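Lecture notes, unit on protein representations.

Consider one protein chain, 543 amino acids long.
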Amino acid sequence: MSSRTPALFSLPRLTLLYLPLIVLASIAVGMVIASRLDLTPTSSAQTIAVPPMNSAPLTGPLSADTFRNIAKAQAPMVVNIKTEMKAKSQDLEGLFGGGNGSDDFLRRFFGGPGGGQGQGQGDDNDNGSTRRRRQREPIARAAGSGFIINGRDGFILTNNHVVEDAIKIEVYLYTDDETPYTAKVIGRDVLTDSALIQLVDRPASPLPEAKFGDSGQMQPGDWVMAIGNPFSLAHTISVGVISATKRPFNVTDQRTNEMLQTDAAINPGNSGGPLLNIRGEVIGINTAIISNGQSEGNIGIGFAVPINTVRDLLPQLREGKVIRGRIGVSVGVVPRENFEELGLKTRTRAVVSSVLPNSAAGKAGMEPGDVVVEYNGRAVSNRDELVKMVVATKPGTTVPIKVLREKKEKTLSVTVEQLDLDAEAQPAQTRRGNNNQNNDTNEQQGSGFGITVSNLSPQIARRLQLPSNRTTGALITDVDPDGPAAGSGVRTGDVILQINRKPVSNAADAARELKAVPSGRLAQILLWRAEAASEVFVTVKKD
């Protein structure tokens, strides 16, 4: 008994001695497990600090060493980004020069070879067993640029298309272009083609950071410098001027983004790199070029996303998602002539072209042909201004929208929805078929408009999936490519539902209403378009 007594009395002392060590060890193990499983909650300290913007006027002389000094001071904050992604044949075809239509001359910047690499291989086994093995997916490798905006936490801005779908991201720094540093995507935005990535591992020494200028003060003729990695030639410098501002650039089939246009040499691999002003401050993110189809390189027309646009989104990019508003309409510009017929005194405001079924605007009673004059108490100057107001509105907010309908003001209360670009980009499920089959041949000419219409048969109406309350109309069977209707976007296969707010039941109705429009005046036409699965409003000036 005596031999065990000392041990019993010493137990509390040992416990007091080792308890803190056990607790510390447990915490350390827990942190390791949490980090491996990515369970560690995001710290409030991880919220990104938006870089300050210098809006001071761009003044001062241009000397022989101005650009040399800018390059020396700002090149260190530019990085080279290399990515790997699962190759898709259709994606590679579009990115490296395939495809048809207008996309042929619009090239996103990716350096490196144009095709999948790392195609799976296997041994030649008996009985064709290799064929039964699932081949390893091909890997596409690409390169782009970026610039550091937070050296302490390793945050880097680049283009969305540089890192989209990437399964591996490596970053090479100016001071060490041979050591790859792994990075991860924090947030992406398709509409501005911007992305925020973060270095997973980084050097112990502080990283240089970009300084932000004010892209809103840039004017045509202002000097700019581009820094990037064209064709994997690291930290290449090119100089030019701003050629134009607010240049509309198609981001998706239905949305545009205003860009800075420059003649500074931009080539494949420059994507995501900075466009700098004369003070060496970032005023844009180099994004796209126009090619002549014979060369993938620069021909003097490049585009950069204004940095003010991306700067405003940085907090949301840090959270991993950019949230925007949507009301579910397509809007067009007010016609140059005869806008008085819409009830307007000047060529301002925005015309509603179509309203999606069950959308926020549709539920509020908005109709194609409405002219939006005011949004949430603010006057609407043009189409692009209206789109900016809507996307900047927090989803769930109910806003008053004042419209002109048949020259009379009407106020609608619309509850803004959340914009889903992926869903919006999906192609319509309905497509135009052979509309000349099983259709009445009672064709009528739309004299002065350059269209031919015919009666709409029940078979064609079903094929075009007209709504149950829209079973009649006049089918457009031909559009003169040089006529006024073609210039207003009217297409073969569209169905005329109304002309100047009067219902159209057949080809004779359409021909009569179009004939009644005086030459030089507008016809306000409501169409059904199968491709959009919605009603579309257009205005056409009669010859």
